[in-house]
Amino acid sequence: MTDDPLATVTRAPGAQSRRLDLVARLRAVHPLELEWTCTIGNDAVVVGRAAQTPSAGPLRHDTVSRNHFEVRWDASAGMYVGRDLGSHNGSRIDGLPLAKTTGGLHDQSVVQLGDVTLVFETSAAGALSTDGERVLDNLPGESFAMNGFRTHVSRAAADPSPVLLIGETGTGKEFAAVELHARSGRAGPLLTINCASLSAQIVDSQLFGHVRGAFTGANADAPGLFRAADGGTLFLDEIGEIPLELQAKLLRVLQQGEVQPVGATKVVKVDVRVIAATNRALDRAAEAGTFRRDLYARLSLWELQVPTLAQRRGDILGWIDRLAQVWAQRRAEAPTPGAKPQDSPAGSPDAAAPRWIFDPEVTEALLLHRWNNNLREVDRLVHALSTSVGGTERIGLSDLPVWFDGPTDASPRADRATGASALADPSTPKRAVPTREEFVAVFEQVGGSVRALAKHFERDRRQIYRWLESYGLRAPTE
Predict the structure, then answer these.
(1) Burial 249-272 (b: 16+ CB within 10 A, else e)
(2) Do the beta carbons of residue 301 and residue 161 sit within 8 Å?
(3) pLDDT score of 451
(4) Under CATH, to which class is 144-306 assigned?
(5) How confident is the model at residue 78 (pLDDT cuts 50, 70, 90)?
(6) Strand partners, 164
(7) What are phi and psi of 416, to 5 degrees?
(8) What burial class does residue 69 get, using C-beta atoms within 10 Å of its C-beta: 0-12 exposed, 13-18 middle, 19+ buried?
(9) In the predicted model, what is the mean pLDDT of the chain?
(10) Any bridge partners for residue 24, and if so which?
(11) Can you spell out the DSSP letters for 15-73?
(12) Domain 14-124 has CATH 1.20.1050.10
């Protein structure tokens, strides 16, 4: 402040004021029984078995030291950093150990304190809402990302406008569509069509219907999905694949609420709420001329981005448990091979799902994995585990399937390097998974040394042990 009324005061926002726009927290995700969450405020926070953190209290676990780990804001680096406080079992950030150095913490960083796995999360201060705390059966999760997404879903559900769901493959766009319809209050059905699976002629008839004689094989009138969904919702999955020549007809339905069946001369009024989904950037497709600009503008009155699993790492273990229950139910309801139908009643609705106990190294690997196919890849992992281990087994790294290669190039271990941390250079490409012949050749060259193998292939020693087992090799005692 100055006494001169004509003087201009220069505002220097700096890193410190940017931090004030963030909400940050550490959330314990394993072991599940901990249920510990700590909000990170303006002051440094010490985490430990005896540490009295203002928002959470002590982190009570036998492998956590009394004063184990500190989180503070580093104004010079413009980021949060973590520091091990001389703990007995050590600390790791994004898979790398901390000794006397500090490690940079970013949104979705995975923090390992002893055998306890935590996820560090940040969110814009104004992005969180109590709307996102509502229970939505098809959109579970306690992450900031899912809280924000549920908020948008809750607000969009009651509005009759179209919704465009954008997200990577396997993120659960269909689950969001189910919730949008369920909470819309619309009495009609929810119908779905995958636009990528049908030819232009079939899509036209499927969407808008046809009259008898409209084309060869049209022996009777067909209403089409829009009329069948009257009063309800139509979910157009893979909308980016719909043929260009049909986009004008779709636009007319959205703007005027009417369809014209193939071969008909009159239009039919319909009342349908449209939800569309895609993993393509429709704005770029519009620029390229492969998707109509006006249709994109109409579809995206609500444009909701479905978070990837990499944006909600703290929810991954919950999804593993959820999908394990799904697989247990499917197997319980499956008929017994060789039995007569009357001798094979449906399985119990209370079929017991496996209760796996993950080693800390496994938990860390699961959370740091990129999950390129998101929930589909989680489902694949759950299926593999449920067919290879027992229902109450302890899961170690060697129990994971061979295709599960731990953290990938897009994990925090590779793409979150900063000057304040000890992370690897993100410009250094990660070596591809070696074939058995390549691995055996190096194995023999270095005399089976795990340390040398890890250095050669630029991988963690735990990964080398997994490759040794999968390739049927045994390392000499080092």
Answers:
(1) bbbebbeeeebebbeeeeebebeb
(2) yes
(3) 78
(4) alpha beta
(5) confident
(6) 276, 303
(7) -125, 35
(8) buried
(9) 84
(10) 40, 122
(11) HHHHHTTEEEEEEEEESGGG--EEEE-SS-EEESSS---TTT-----TTS-TT-EEEEE
(12) no
Please say whether the beta carbons of 228 and 187 come within 8 A: no
Q: Which carries the bigger pLDDT value, residue 388 or residue 285? A: 285
Rounded-to-10 torsion of CA 199, 203, 206, 211: -90
Q: In this structure, what DSSP letter does residue 15 have?
A: H
**Angle CA(278)–CA(121)–CA(24) in degrees, nearest 5?**
130
Q: Where are the domains of the chain?
A: 14-124, 144-306, 311-334+347-470
Residue type, 310: A
Confidence of residue 19 (pLDDT cuts 50, 70, 90): low
Calculate helix-pair angle for 450-457, 436-445, nearest 10 degrees: 130
Band (pLDDT 50/70/90 cuts) for residue 293 is very high
Distance from C-alpha of 320 to C-alpha of 250, rounded to nearest angstrom: 38
CATH top class, domain 311-334+347-470: mainly alpha
DSSP code for 280: S
Q: Are 195 and 238 in contact (CB under 8 A)?
A: yes
**pLDDT for 185-207, tens place per residue?**
999 999 999 998 877 667 888 89
- What are the tokens at 54? 């203002």
**Distance, C-alpha 245 to centroid of its chain:** 34
Amino acid at site 402: V
- Which residue reads 């049908």 in tokens? 198
CA dist., res. 408 & res. 279, Å (int):
21
Residue of 267, 237, 234, 262 whose CA lies nearest to 252: 267
Which pair of structure tokens corresponds to residue 256?
A: 């005027």
Report how far Cα 401 is from the mean position of its chain's Cα atoms: 20
∠354-360-361 over CA atoms, to 5°? 105
Q: What tokens appear for 283 in the block?
A: 């704005």
Tokens of residue 204, six digits: 């036209």
- Whether the full predicted model's pTM is greater than 0.85, yes or no, is no
Q: What is the mean pLDDT of residues 202-215?
A: 85
